[in-house]
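[User] Could I get a sequence and structure tokens?

[Assistant]
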Amino acid sequence: MTDTVDDGAGGPVVVGANWYRFASGERIVNPHVMSVSFVWIVSGGGEIKVGDQRFQVDAQHVLRLPWHHHVEYRAHRRGPFHIGTLHVVPQHSFAAAVVPRVAHLPGDPLLEDAARTGDPGAFRPGLSSIHTGAARRITEYGTLAIDRLGESAFDEDYFRALGRLVLLENAAWSRSAAESAALPGSLELMMTFIRHHIAEPLTVARVAEAARCSQTTAQRLFRAHTGETMQEWIRHVRLREAGTLLRTTGLRVGEVAHLVGYPDPLYFSRAFRRAYGIAPSRFAQGTLRP
């Protein structure tokens, strides 16, 4: 694929990222989004329509939207979704300063910005599970981008480097899409067991027993289909669930730690900071539009 290649005249750059919590039944239409967008569902559910394709999404999903797309978000009336979005310009001229903003409405001068280019055919709409390696890492880069954009002045070098990392993971996502579309039944059973027992101690032996397979087979399935060991996958599930609880409840950090399987709040805080680059106590909610 050519979407990760730097041709000397320009390269990818992250130009925006944010959280947005939809109201019950809320509908938002963005007619001209000049970015390749990655949308992940933090909680709740709804429908996202891009072009003539409709995607029913919930908290297990990450959606890729192509360059220069028309998108419609429609939240469920019960359990409306809370989403994160990450916006990448695939090719931005090195000769022009990057404006950290996404063009999405008629009349926006950035719609005609010759410094920003992309190929809609290179980034087809795609739905993935947040539990697959590439999609999960893109959401982690998205969370990092949201934090950096909210904490300091825009650092063009940093966000160009981040844009390149995102597109490298996008290429990995594309290569593994067929494989991740249908997970083995034993792996699905183990993933479901983990999510239902996330507050409890989880050993490889206990999880493997839930699918009636050997520990060796269990580890092989996780490595083959997620790119991670089982324990790495469990840790990421715990921390993602912690992020959701921190943003959607009034629970204290220690209470959240206990609910996601960390008996030691101090250890939890260190793990959370390593994963997200921010202390759990500062992991705030956002209200920007997608």
In short: The beta strands are 10-21, 27-33, 36-43, 46-50, 53-57, 61-65, 69-75, 82-93, 116-117, 126-129. DSSP finds eight helices and ten strands in the chain. The chain has two domains: 10-180, 185-282.
